[in-house]
Design goal:
alpha/beta, five-stranded parallel sheet, 5 strands, 10 helices, about 45% helix, Rossmann fold
């Protein structure tokens, strides 16, 4: 039945193209994929960057892991299969934001390389920027802002990344941010430098006094 159903679905091209939207906004759209252990600072950085971009007059948005699980993905658990589906769905949503001409930041642990690579393959070259928010497990446990590591260590949370479930580090991320060494401001500037170098945003925007 599902196969028959899929044959009746036809993709409709937008009258207004991604390029049209980018031209109107004055910058390219891109997926900024923040990945790292729980407590590494993904959401903090994604939201700080979002505020910075907003203050500069750019169109941006943050898709946060916890927030998405309250709605779109609330029926998913944390098994390996559900984690993969979680990332697949958010990849598709991110692509919609990309087509809308938005700089979309995603803050998900996304522990498996294959899942992250599959999202990369959804879009054109240069539209997926993997940002590895690197922080030692020890430092993440010391931070433990949600008390999750403590619960994982006591067995209350099974299949917890870094404790009872693996995290596969990015091999060649576009941006490496070591949050146990850099400040939030320093981390943001490292991402911004890449966006300028890659031609996503212009130096005239970043150097403006909007923010």
């Amino acid at each position: 039945m599902s196969t028959q159903h899929s044959k009746n679905i036809v993709w409709h091209e937008s009258v207004v193209s991604k390029q049209d939207r980018q031209k109107q906004k004055g910058h390219k759209s891109v997926i900024l994929w923040f990945t790292g252990l729980s407590g590494a600072g993904k959401s903090t950085l994604a939201n700080a960057l979002d505020l910075y971009l907003h203050q500069k007059g750019l169109t941006s948005y943050v898709l946060d892991g916890d927030n998405v699980r309250h709605g779109l993905n609330k029926g998913l658990g944390f098994s390996e299969e559900d984690r993969k589906e979680n990332i697949r769905r958010i990849g598709e949503v991110s692509k919609l934001f990309l087509d809308a001409g938005t700089i979309v930041s995603t803050a998900f642990i996304s522990p498996f390389r294959q899942d992250r690579d599959q999202v990369r393959q959804l879009v054109e070259d240069g539209e997926f920027i993997e940002i590895y928010v690197k922080c030692s497990l020890e430092k993440c446990e010391l931070r433990d802002p949600k008390g999750l590591y403590k619960k994982a260590r006591s067995g209350e949370i099974p299949e917890f990344t870094g404790i009872s479930s693996p995290y596969e580090e990015p091999l060649n991320p576009e941006v490496l941010v070591e949050t146990d060494q850099l400040s939030i401001e320093g981390s943001i500037q490292k991402v911004i430098a890449y966006l300028v170098e890659a031609g996503i945003v212009g130096t005239e925007i970043i150097n403006s006094n909007n923010g």
